[in-house]
Structure formats: structure tokens, C-alpha cells
Design goal:
Length: 374
């Protein structure tokens, strides 16, 4: 039976190195090779075991060198660079790849890259565009995580049927924990403009606006608490990545900005009119909408069974909660720190079933924790 054994990852940053770690830990892939324009990233990826060896890519007269022969042996090539350079990289390497090789990418936008690649791709190469809906504001291999793809929605926007190769990639991604979703490149780009790109631009705009106020009074940043931190984490994302994302999806992002500006203007006029009932109605409707989101879908794991636990500030406070649940055989599918204060904070734990949530609740209440469940 045909299997994907040797994988080449181009761009061993956050996504590329996370994928390397995951493939080595959870699949039967025998060798992961990595290429990056940044030597430091290659060194880190080797150190953390995200790749086994460096892959070299040489163009022009050196393209048939011994190192380049490694490209011929790859069953799968993953492009994990900023979207702006993906099509050029495909062009650079495709002549050295074997017939029937699968190429995929993890870029955050799809249409522009696909349109460029379509016209230039060798016919015997199977290109399957992808986008894992998981990540972090930390870029580079130092942020890599073998579990990044676990239970994460992973969109594929296949171009051709691919003679069974498509299934090989799907099986591999399922082994690293991804939940596959298939859609057209256009639909993908339209949805992520709302679900991912607008939130990023908003987070950046918020930091920018508050930063402007801080120029006049720097105490602003001393007063920013959880609300500001929670809504701006993603503004620390890599500027190169986000420039490429925005330029490759500008029409859908601009539609979302326009919709958002209208919504913001509604708030502005309610304030101008000191319309208390109008404001209440708006906040009330939005609160219900926000509460509904995890129930409707948080990734593909729905509904969500969650507990928010108050914990005090002492060493191993989180460990005490998680190990008492672990000892009872209760699996935590997601965990997050909601608030960190000097005297303590709040922890959000998610379970897969209502029964596990109930059992966890009983254990923690017996141990004296205060918690709310949903
Ligand atoms: N960060 C996220 O949350 C996230 C999530 C899903 C998808 N993505 C997408 O995944 C891709 C990678 O993002 P990331 O967060 O891993 O970024 P990253 O900056 O951590 O990694 C990108 C890597 O590509 C390398 N690179 C850049 N240009 C190159 C070139 N021409 N040749 C070889 N290597 C090159 C960089 O040196 C870096 O190591 C992007 O297309 C991004 O849109 C990111
Ligand atoms: O930083 C995070 O938490 C992310 O998951 C990043 C995020 C997102 O907007 O959800 C950002 C861009 C990617 O294309 C996919 C994921």
C-alpha cells in the first residue's frame, strides 16, 4: 500500500516545525527534511527534532547537485512560508520533484496562490492547498508544538481529484489530530476574512488607538487589564505573514472592514443620542450571540462542555486542578488561563462530554474550588 514516507517542509517556522514534530510523533513518516532561508530556523528545527535533516534547494546550474537529489525522493512537500513566496517556491522546485509527488501548503489565503500555481504546475504533480485553522502569535520554530493540529479545523481546497493521492494526505492529517473540512478557495477566503483577518486587523487597530492615547498619558497601559490583553494577543503576530495575508485577500477583507465600520457607527450614534435602551438592546443581543458561538461550533467539537475555575496564586495551582482530574481519568480537551491577578486567576477547562464535566465539577467542588459551568 502506498504511504507517505519522506516529507520535505519548506519554511520551518511555527507551522512548518509544528507539522514536522507532529508528523514524527503521530504518523509513520520515516524522514522529515527541512529547508528555510533562515539558517537559525534550520538549526532550531534540528535541535527540537522537528526535522531530521536539512533539505537544500538549488536553482539553475546547481539544480542537479547531490543535495538536490533529495527533492526527488520526497513523497510530500509542505510549503509553510508566508503566502507571498509560495508560488515562486513551487516554480523553483517542481522540476526536481518525482512524478506523483503531493505538494500542499498551509497558507492563510488560497485563491491568489492557487491562480498563480495553476498555470505553471507540472501535470504529474498533485497540488492540494490547505489551511490549518490553528496557530499562535509566536512565529518561528521556537513556538512549535506537536499538538498544534489536535482537534483543529484543517481546510483543504482541492484542485483536482489526484488519483487517490488526496486520501493519502487526508489520512496523514487525520493522524496528527486535524479535523478536515473541504471547500472552494473562494469560499475559504471569504470566510477567513471574517473569522480571522478582520479580528487581526481589529486587534492591531485597537493597540494603535490605545497607543495614541498613551502618547499623552502612559498610565493607560498600567490600567489595561484582561479585556485589552484578551482582545489584542494576536496583534503580536508576524508583520510579514500578515502583510501577505492582507494583500492576497484584500477584497474580502475590505468588505468586512466596511461592515465593521457600519457596526461601529451604530454604537457611535447610540452614544451621541445617549440611547440607553438602544445600547442595552445591542449589548444584550450581542451577548446572546457570543454565548451561542461555542454551542454552534467551536471547531468541530460541539457542543462545548466547560468549567471556569477560580484558583489562588501559589506554586502548582494549575497542576493541582489538572492532576486531580487526571487521577479520576477525566480528559481535558482544552485549557486556557482567563485571568491572571496578583491574588489568583481563573482557568477554563473544556471536556468532551456533559458527564465528564459533571464529574469534574463534583471533584473540584469537594476540593473547595469555586467554579461555574456551561
Ligand atoms: N501563525 C499562524 O497562526 C498561522 C496559522 C495558520 C496558517 N498560517 C500560515 O502558515 C504560513 C507560515 O506561517 P508561520 O506562522 O509558520 O510563520 P513563521 O514566520 O513562523 O514561519 C515562516 C518560515 O518561512 C521562512 N521563509 C520565508 N520566506 C522563505 C523563502 N522564500 N524560502 C524559504 N523559507 C522562507 C521563514 O524564515 C520562516 O522560518 C503562512 O503562510 C501563514 O499565513 C499561519
Ligand atoms: O493565534 C491564534 O490563535 C490563531 O489561531 C491564529 C489564526 C486565527 O486567526 O485563528 C491566524 C491566522 C491563521 O491563518 C490561522 C489561525
Amino acid at each position: 500500500m502506498e504511504r507517505i514516507k519522506r516529507v520535505g517542509i519548506i519554511g520551518v517556522g511555527l507551522l512548518g516545525s509544528s507539522l514536522g514534530l507532529a508528523l514524527k510523533r503521530f504518523t509513520e513518516v520515516t524522514e522529515v527534511l527541512g529547508y528555510d532561508k533562515d539558517n537559525q530556523h534550520i538549526e532550531t528545527a534540528l535541535e527540537i527534532g522537528a526535522i531530521d535533516n536539512e533539505l537544500s534547494i538549488e536553482e539553475g546550474e546547481n539544480s542537479n547537485s547531490k543535495e538536490n537529489k533529495m527533492l526527488k525522493k520526497l513523497d510530500l512537500v509542505v510549503l509553510a512560508t508566508p503566502v507571498g513566496v509560495i508560488s515562486k517556491l513551487v516554480q523553483d522546485i517542481q522540476e526536481q520533484l518525482k512524478s506523483g509527488v503531493i505538494i500542499t501548503d498551509v497558507g492563510s489565503t488560497k485563491r491568489k496562490v492557487i491562480n498563480k500555481i495553476k498555470g505553471q504546475l507540472r501535470e504529474d504533480i498533485i497540488y492540494i492547498p490547505g489551511h490549518p485553522m490553528t496557530g499562535s502569535e509566536i512565529s518561528g520554530p521556537k513556538g512549535a508544538d506537536a499538538y498544534l493540529f489536535e482537534n483543529a479545523i484543517y481546510v483543504l481546497t482541492p484542485l483536482q481529484d489526484g488519483n487517490g493521492k488526496f486520501n493519502l494526505l487526508v489520512e496523514l492529517l487525520e493522524k496528527i489530530g486535524a479535523k478536515l473540512l473541504f471547500m472552494s478557495p473562494k469560499k475559504h477566503d471569504q470566510i477567513v476574512a471574517a473569522a480571522s483577518h478582520l479580528p487581526h486587523i481589529m486587534a492591531c487597530t485597537l493597540v494603535d488607538a490605545v497607543g495614541k492615547v498613551a502618547q499623552e498619558d502612559e498610565r493607560v497601559f498600567s490600567l489595561t487589564a484582561g479585556g485589552f490583553r484578551d482582545t489584542t494577543r494576536i496583534a503580536s503576530g508576524d508583520p510579514i505573514m500578515w502583510t501577505d495575508v492582507c494583500l492576497s485577500n484584500s477584497n474580502f477583507i475590505r468588505e468586512m472592514i466596511s461592515l465593521f465600520k457600519d457596526r461601529l457607527a451604530e454604537f457611535d450614534s447610540l452614544l451621541a443620542d445617549a440611547d440607553s435602551q438602544g445600547l442595552y438592546n445591542k449589548f444584550n443581543r450581542i451577548q446572546s450571540l457570543r454565548e451561542e458561538i461555542p454551542k454552534k461550533k467551536r471547531g468541530l467539537i460541539s457542543p462545548v462542555h466547560e468549567a471556569v475555575i477560580n484558583i489562588s496564586d501559589h506554586p502548582n495551582a494549575i497542576g493541582e486542578v489538572t492532576s486531580s482530574l487526571g487521577k479520576a481519568g477525566i480528559n481535558i480537551v482544552d485549557i486556557g488561563i482567563l485571568r491572571v491577578r496578583e491574588e489568583g486567576g481563573a482557568l477554563r477547562l473544556v471536556f468532551s462530554t456533559a458527564e465528564e464535566l459533571e464529574e469534574a465539577k463534583n471533584i473540584l467542588i469537594k476540593k473547595g474550588y469555586k467554579l461555574q459551568t456551561k
